[in-house]
Design brief:
mainly alpha; 72% helix; 0% strand; Alkyl hydroperoxide reductase; membrane; transmembrane helix; transmembrane
Length: 142
């Protein structure tokens, strides 16, 4: 039985807009000042800052995706899923680098704002999209 599609709550849109703006700002900063985080953490600068700038570009592109997903978080749940996966795997990679002594703990402060902050809202958006899909029988009904 198919029922009427419900609309995502306003907070879901707000969180995705916030994530979009945050990612665009973080990505632009990394592109413009690639050594900043390394200098702040007391880590030697990269020999090839262009690689780190590419990370900034990827983060910024995620920001564009989050802003697009904010228009209808349940319809655009794959963007939210990809974002959440990155926000889970990023800290795993950091933990591995920390265990090997590649990064100092101070570098992990970025994990708080880049990743952990977004876990709960993204997971709740995905849960809402799943529940809506089960209720209506189609995740992308207009």
């Amino acid at each position: 039985m198919t029922t009427t599609r419900t609309h995502p709550p306003g907070w879901a849109r707000w969180w995705l807009r916030a994530a979009g703006v945050y990612n665009l700002a973080w990505g632009a900063t990394v592109i413009a000042v690639p050594h900043l985080l390394f200098d702040l953490c007391g880590i030697p600068r990269l020999n090839y800052p262009e690689i780190w700038q590419c990370v900034g570009m990827i983060v910024g592109v995620y920001g564009v995706g989050y802003l697009a997903a904010a228009a209808d978080p349940w319809r655009h749940w794959p963007i939210v899923l990809v974002g959440l996966l990155g926000k889970v795997f990023g800290p795993i990679g950091f933990a591995a680098a920390l265990a090997k002594g590649t990064f100092p703990p101070a570098f992990g402060l970025t994990i708080l704002t880049n990743d952990l902050l977004w876990w709960v809202p993204f997971a709740l958006i995905l849960w809402g999209a799943f529940r809506n899909h089960r209720r209506t029988g189609a995740a992308t009904d207009a």
